[in-house]
Write a structure and sequence with these properties.
The chain has 185 residues and is an alpha+beta fold. 43% of the residues lie in helices and 26% in strands. The chain has four helices and four strands. The chain has a four-stranded mixed beta sheet. α2 packs across α4 and α3 crosses α4. The longest helix is centred in the last third of the chain and has 32 residues.
Length: 185
């Protein structure tokens, strides 16, 4: 026999949850709620235009070339600007720190540390507008097979370079979205 559940443990409570969540979101949108870290639309457009107007200077070494290509994909997806407004210069340092030393003094684990110091210059005046540093640490196993170790190290390098490129793009985007940077060209 069927009768209503007086405690509300049935399906009506589950069906009401999405409607309640939607009503809450509409109420928040109606009161002018906006996340603090979300810049206004005009600043977001200006920030992406500034990123696209940034020329990435060559970075030394093969690892630097790989970072340059990742940054170019993130900052200039349609190609390097013909008339850049900003110049991005990066100094990259790579080091390996062995860990997990065994009794025979061989390591079984290592950390690949990538450190990038960057600065943004005004292309016309060469004045430094913004500078910073970002570090990525990625671990990998040192195995008895040399090829497997080299593959693991290359995977850690790929992850680290992606981290650096994402961090640099994020920090440049935040800088270009700030109101005081709007006065710069």
């Amino acid at each position: 026999m069927w009768w209503p559940d007086p405690l509300g443990r049935g399906g009506t409570r589950r069906r009401a949850r999405p409607a309640l969540a939607a009503a809450l979101l509409l109420a928040l949108a109606g009161c002018g709620f906006r996340p603090l870290n979300l810049p206004p639309e005009s600043a977001r457009v200006a920030g992406s235009d500034r990123l696209a107007a940034t020329q990435i200077r060559p970075i030394e070494g093969r690892v630097g070339q790989r970072l340059h290509n990742l940054l170019r994909d993130r900052l200039n997806p349609s190609g390097q600007p013909a008339r850049p407004a900003y110049l991005l210069e990066i100094r990259l340092r790579k080091s390996i720190r062995e860990q997990a030393i065994q009794t025979d003094e061989t390591a079984t684990r290592a950390n690949l540390i990538l450190q990038a110091r960057y600065l943004v210059r005004d292309a016309a005046t060469r004045a430094v507008l913004f500078q910073g540093e970002t570090v990525s640490v990625n671990g990998y196993n040192i195995l008895t097979n040399l090829y497997a170790t080299k593959t693991a190290e290359d995977g850690a390098l790929r992850r680290g370079l992606r981290d650096l490129a994402d961090n640099i793009r994020l920090r440049l985007s935040a800088h270009f979205a700030e109101p005081q940077s709007a006065a710069t060209p």
